[in-house]
Every structure is written in C-alpha cells, then in structure tokens.
Amino acid sequence: MNQRNEPEKREGSFRRFLRRKDIVFSAKRYGIDALGAMALGLFGSLLIGTIFKSIGMIPFLGIFTQIGGYAQAVSGATMAIAIAYALKAPPFVLYSSAAVGYAANALGGAGGPLAVLIITVVAVELGKAVSKETRVDIIVTPFVTVFSGGVLASLIAPLIGTAVGYLSAFIGWATTCQPFIMGIIISVVIGVALTLPISSAAICSAINLSGAAIYTASGELMTLDYGGLALAGGAAVAGCCAQMVGFAVMSFRENGWGGLLSQGIGTSMIQMPNIIKKPIIWLPPIIASAITGPLATCLFQMRMYSAAINSGMGTCGMLGPIGIILGWFSGRYPNAVTPLDWIGLVLICILLPALISLGVAALLRRFRLISDGDMKLPD
Fold it and tell me: For the segment 297-320, what is each residue's pLDDT rounded down to a tens digit?
C-alpha cells in the first residue's frame, strides 16, 4: 500500500514545489501575461526608439536619433525583463533575464521577439526553480538563468529566425504576382506579421520591399525590379497601417486617447493577449488591409522608394507614411508628385483603415461577436 502511494506523494511534493516557486503552467500565464508584458517592453524600447528616430529627422533635432538608437539597442533585454516581471521572477532572475533576452533577440533575426518570448519564459522558470535553494544563491540563480537562456538562444533562436524566413520567401513570391493579388497578399501578411511577436520591419528589409537602390559589397548596383518591389512596399505600408489604425480606433471606447496613441503610433502587438482570448477581434483590421492593399497598388500606385524597413513600420512613429514621402523627393521616384498621391497616402494610411475597421467592428458588435472590454489594454 505504501508503494502505491509513493508516486502520489512524489507528485504532491512536486506540485507543492511549483506552488511555492509560483511556477504556473498555463496558457494565461504564458500566452497572455508574458506576451502582453513583452509587447509593453517592445514599446518601451524598440518602438519608442523608432519614434525618437523619426523626430530626429527634423532639422536641429538630431539628438533624438542618437537617443532612439540607444533605446532600440536594448530591445531584447527590455522585453525579457518585462516577461520576467510578468512571471513574478525574484530579483536575481529578473536582472539575469536581460542577458537572455539580448541573446535571443540577436540570434532570432526577424523572429527575434518570438524567440525572446519562448526562451525567456523557459530560462526564467528554471531560474525561479533554483532561486534561494542554496547558500550561494548569488551565483547559482544567475548562472542557471543565463546559462539555460544562452544555450536555448543558441539552439532555438536561429530556428525561429529560419521559420520566419519561410514567411519572407512567401512574401517574396507574392511580389511577382499581378498587382491586385500582390496587394491583397502582401498587405494582409505583412500587417498580420506586424501584430504578431515577430518583426515585420525585418522581413521587409530582408526581402528589400522598396525601390531604393541596393549595391553589392564591391559597390556595383544590383539589377532589381525596382518598380515591382516599390509597389509591394506600398502594399506593406497599407497592411501595417490597417492593423495599427484599425485597432486604435475600434478599441477607443475601451482604451481612450492613451490606447489610441499607444496603438496608432506605437504598435498593435499590445493587442495580442486579447487576440489570443478572442481571435475574432483581429478580423476588422485584416479586412481593412485586404481592401486597402489592392487600392494602394492598383488605384493609387503607392510605392516605397525610401528604406525597405519603413515598409514594415506602418504608423509606428509615422515611419511608413514618412518613408513614402521621403521616397517621393529622393530622386528615385519615377513620376511627378501629384495631389492624388497625397490623397491616396491619407486615405490608405489613415482614413480608410479607420472607417473600415470601425464599420466591421460595429457589425460584429451588433451580432454580439465582439463585446465591450474585449480589446481592453492593461493599465
């Protein structure tokens, strides 16, 4: 009889250990709490740095560019610390997670934020497990946290980056499609990537969604289909703006002006925990991007002739529209800038995403598929 009870005792002891360490294996803890914190960490580093850099484009305000660069450089560490805080990590684990996040983000490429999320969660939970269990906690806890995170970053982060690379390849194929089809595919896929914990900007940069000239290491100009890539860049801008503006306006009743600004010029990624809980809230911005994408490519011929990274930024710091405008006056834009270009820019990047998302969201609310509070952001 004692032998039969032994496994139960061991199981009970393990559960008590997890409870004492506040290690909770649940979708809410990892898919909502940790992911939501990671998005806030991303906003507090990479995205605010991007906004600073856009301010730095104004004459005599170059100091903002320098400050923005510093903020962007610590994005991996900041996301990891935010995740560790959400997981209620003790101090040594919290501080040590910075190194884990830096490594995961650096090795993850375009999938850096996702790598940070997965790897930091594991490293932090392992660090919590050993925290204060020995008399040399000052050595053991940071060692376990940093070592486990570093090993996982070396093994897993590049694989995550490779997986995101397949998405980049698919988008690259989409650039060869007819403009209407290309507009839908690229707008929707890049827009979704912007909201997911991966880097839409890195994807756009990797496949050069821009008509800007690219040179080889020897200084020779590469022969690329600049027209097609520039048009694809415009579609990417449309999709990213649809996500950010769409979530900002349709969640205004829950989040007010703070939510409008944090999503409209920050990132729609902070809605990911709510999307996990209720995926249908993602439908209005996706529909908006499926409409504005082909309008950008076929009607307004909106093209990106600035840096390809701007194609994946949307209204974050307004870098998507700013990139379009800078491209117009860079000497590479093949046509004269007309009032129709300006009208198209405002419609595609701001007005249409707002109106379409609001309209679809209102319809979903009417059928009680979306309820008040579904898009509420954490205070």
Answer: 999 999 999 888 889 999 988 989
* Sequence-ordered list of residues with C-beta below 8 angstroms from that of 379, at least 6 positions apart, any chain: none
CA–CA gap between residue 236 and residue 211 (Å, rounded): 13
Claim to verify: residue 139 and residue 182 sit in the same structural domain: no
pLDDT band at 213 (very low <50, low <70, confident <90, very high): low
For tokens 């570093």, the residue is 150
Query: Any residues with CB less than 8 A from the CB of 256 and at least 6 apart, and which?
Result: none
Nearest by Cα to 269 from 62, 82, 26: 82
Residue 293: name the closest of 207, 352, 340, 228 by CA.
352
Both 136 and 179 in one domain: the answer is no
Q: What is the rounded CA–CA span in Å between residue 320 and residue 313? A: 5
Residues 246 and 285 in one domain: yes
State phi, psi for 215 to the nearest 5 degrees. Answer: -115, 150
Please check whether residue 376 lies inside any domain of the structure: no
**What pTM does this model have?**
0.81
Spatial CB neighbours of 197, under 8 Å, sequence gap ≥ 6: 35, 38, 39, 113, 114, 117, 269, 272
Could you tell me the residue range of the domain that residue 33 belongs to?
2-162
Statement to judge: residues 353 and 245 lie in one domain: yes
Whether 378 is covered by a domain: the verdict is no
